[in-house]
Fold this protein.
Amino acid sequence: MQNYAEWFASVTQKLPFPYQEYLATAPEFPILLNVPTGAGKTAAVVLSWIWRRRNAETRWKTPRRLVYCLPMRTLVEQTYAEVERWLKQAGLSSKVGLHLLMGGAVSSRWEAHPEKDCILIGTQDQLLSRALNRGYGMSRYKWPIHFALLNNDCLWVMDEVQLMGAGLRTTAQLQGFREMIGTYGTTQSLWMSATLDPELLQTVNHKPDLSQSHQLTETDLLNDTLRLRMQAQKRLSRAVTECAGKESHKELAKEVLAAHRPESLTLVIFNRVSNAQALYKALEKHTSEKLTLIHSRFRAAERQALNQQLRDGISGILIATQAIEAGVDISAQTLFTELAPWSSLVQRFGRCNRYGECSDTATVHWIDIPDLKKGASPYEAEQLETARSLLKDLSDVGPSALKQVKAPKEEIEGLIPRQHDLLQLFDTSTDLAGHDIDISSFIRETDETDLAIAWRDWSDAKPPPTMDAIQQQELCRVSIGRAREFFDRLKKQNQKVWVRDGLRGWQEVTTLCPGMTLLLHYSAGGYDPDLGFTGNTPQTSAVPLKKLITPDEDDRDNLSQGATVFIELAIHSQDVAEEVATLCQQLATLDLPVDLLVRAGRWHDAGKAHHVFQTALTHNRPEQVGDMLWAKSDHDFKNPADCYSMPANRRGFRHELVSALLALQEQEDFLLCYLVACHHGKVRMTIQPRPTEKPTGIERFALGVHQGDRVHERLAEINLGADLKIKSQNLSLACMSMGDGEYGQSWTAQAIALLEEHGSFKLAFLETLIRVADWHGSARHAPKLLEETDG
């Protein structure tokens, strides 16, 4: 059998550095990895995790999922491509899942396999919002699933944490919560940085042992390759041109062209996208050199093409923003960088002479900002003044020189979630006004918050209700400030901005919130494929989509309606119970309540016996009407002509609420009742009518279910298979009311007690297992079902 060094070399074609081998063979992962840029941190952590998960002795105590969190909003694809190549070289592509977590619907359902080894790569915006149960740019009904899978049985790796801002302390606080209230499986966090103040990891609920850190040792520096990188020289000088208005871009273009060496890479990094775009346009007029523009305001479709250029090796002049600071493996001979906070500058210096291959000719030019009051954004003027004072005393910014710099500690602004926040965030229902808790201040400084925009074509006054879900490829991230300016101009042109509401369909936007996914007609413009978001481009073409994905609406059951054949309720109940048992067996080390989960799987769709649901399933299928109870039908729910619309007084009917009420009335364990209610993510902590739900003459009602409904109207009992039969009965919604009712305390009171007993992370994980088993039970009869919906 290969040892780690041999296996590492077979995967990367390079022998590991000593510290890389240590990570794979030490008793456990450190909390902090203090290693400079260019020393192979990504390979060190990813490959050591893979090795531990493939090794029988360490597999059981190594988390099942590796969550790789990058601070920048773009170019996570770079890390993804590298990991993809390693998995392929190791022959593990089919055994270890690899997924990008970004906004928009996706057809690859990574969350359908919680039992499998998996690597998840994303930005802090996407990962932390999901870990806080408010996932940006995704179906709200899947929030609890991602919340569960990102907080149980995971190793979180934070890369270049000095760039994370407020998100850094949130990652530490979340780890503290996991250790305090418990998770299923081992859940750890590892922070990587060469400039981090470890004290920043100390929060109210997280007091890590900071002695559990690792850094380069003398043994590492005996390695010729690593020594060459650590001793690389990068001569520093101040650029002649200052960043001061439109005319400065023309002068800077001349200076960049004069410094550029043919057949080499010159990298120019700005703090703001507008400056990068302006220099790109100025250079276009004066050179035939290959020009590349990379920043955070490209759609994923164009960004993938840019990333491919980086992977293939790039020369010429590359103009970029902070997007290039982390997760990008390039080495420029000449670097120009706008004045930035010291930690950002250190990252940028690492993109010059990265491997020590051109120490004789590597040069770094820093571009001053004369008026920091006007030009400091998106940073604080004080941060830039500090960096400027440090730069003035330096002539070299190679790793050895930077090690001698005594930079002052940087303060991190922003809030951290407290325990009461975590409890509030567990409930995914909106308030009476339809609003959600804003988590943006836990993720980034408040002036850095983004939303996402897609452009499409349609012919009517508003997007059609049948329009497919917005996908990752279409989305362009834009700061709220820029978006607001852009939308104000569009309003004057009678252009509207749209957002999809789970209950009401497409609605005109009135308020902007971080993480929103918005839709514009292509004629609104604002985006250029070569420049990215501009806010003034006349027209924007839509992104061609290879596969269409059906959105999950509040009054729809994609997985119920998406089967290709009629399936009996008893058979589907048996299928799901078997899938739950299989999942529990695959997760046997987690000490799950197996018997209760299997029984919940059998109970989950009992509510489909309700006449409203049976009528929907047999709509236009008179031959299927009778005494047989169905769980699935063969309707094409993508075809409006083949879909059944609920009666006005039953709009948004939720069969899982009926299932939960039946279980409650049959005096099943409340945990079972809760899990049954949650299996579509639409009924959880509360039971309340929708604002538009006002049936006449009904005492109590919620989600299309009415007090006194008979389940079933004709049959004496409901058969759920395996000798589990429920007698027909009238439904009571007494649990909606506060205080004790005929079936105990209110639903919300019992749900809160359940949350306190099991903790947020474990309870969400149990929800997820029932939902995943339901998907797989459905897919037994329709294998493509999991690929055709984001619900």
In short: The longest helix spans residues 760-779. The CA atoms of residues 108 and 192 lie 29 Å apart. The chain has a mean pLDDT of 89.
